[in-house]
User: Fold this.
Amino acid sequence: MLYVGHFSFSFQSKPSRKASQPWHGYFTAVVESANVAGALKKLEVLAQKSAAASELFSDVSEIFLESCVELKSVPRTGFLAHVALEEGESLGSISTTLPGVDRKYASSYHFEPDSADEDGGFDAEPFVVLKKRKGATRAKKAAKKK
Assistant:
């Protein structure tokens, strides 16, 4: 059985000659196990090994398991496995996909524009543009009245 673990962590960065800055992050890990107890042990070992082998976690002292999802099967239309909402505007982030994973196990596909800024940066284009639902504003108004 496949298990997907969703994790969170926070830390204070320690750049040289600058004041430390608070950071937080999330990661998702996948293991295969006969049961959830075995999956949790494998996820723990994987988190420890990843932290020891990667500078991504060099200032992290604690990792929290947000959830462990057992994948019994996947419906044809798929499903959302994890959603995290954060208050306020995004202040920027650093992300990577499949760090240190051999391509024989998984592949990652990224969608980036054909051209970039002079510094190599680019403005991300939305993958999906959602239309506002009519009932969404009514639900917000009803919630405010309570």
Q: What stands out?
A: Strands lie at 2-12, 22-32, 63-71. The mean pLDDT is 85.
